[in-house]
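Why do we care about 3D structure at all? Because function follows from shape, and shape follows, mostly, from sequence. That is the central idea of this module. The next example makes it concrete: a single protein chain, its amino acid sequence, and then its structure expressed as C-alpha cells.
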Amino acid sequence: MMSDASLRTRFTDDLKTAMKSGEKDRVALLRMIGAKLKETDIAARAKGVEQVGGDEIVSMLRGMAKSRAESAHLYREGGRPELAEKEEAEIAIIRDYLPAEMDDAALGAEIEAVIAATGASSMKDMGKVMGALKAKFGASLDLGRANAVLKARLAG
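And the structure:
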C-alpha cells in the first residue's frame, strides 16, 4: 500500500497534470478529493492528529466511491443515464488511488481462515470475525464486500 505522503503527493501531481492537459472533469474531482482530505484532516485534529494516515485516506476514498455508486444507481433508476455515467467515471478515477482488491477466491479464503482462527460458528460471531479482518487488513479490505461474504458463510 502507498504511504499517505505519497498518496497526497500523487493527488497534487495528478491535479497539476490534469490542469495542464485541460481535463476539466478530472481537475474538478481531484480538487474535490483535496477538499475532502483537508476536511478529514481538520476533523482528525480534534483527536490530536495533524494529518490522517493512509488507512484513513483509503477509507475516505472508499466513502466517496460508495456515495457515487449510490447516486449512479439512483440516476439510472430515474432515467438519467448521462448523470449515472458521470458518477461512474468519477468512481473509476477514485479507484485508481485505492489499493487493489482481493479477488473473490482470496477473500473467501481469508474469511475461512479467520473463522477457523476465531472459532466463529454463527451470526453472533460476526463482530469478532469482522474485527479480526479489519485488524489484519485495515483499510485495504472493502469491509462491505467482506461483510456480505461473511454473512452468507455464517448464515449457511
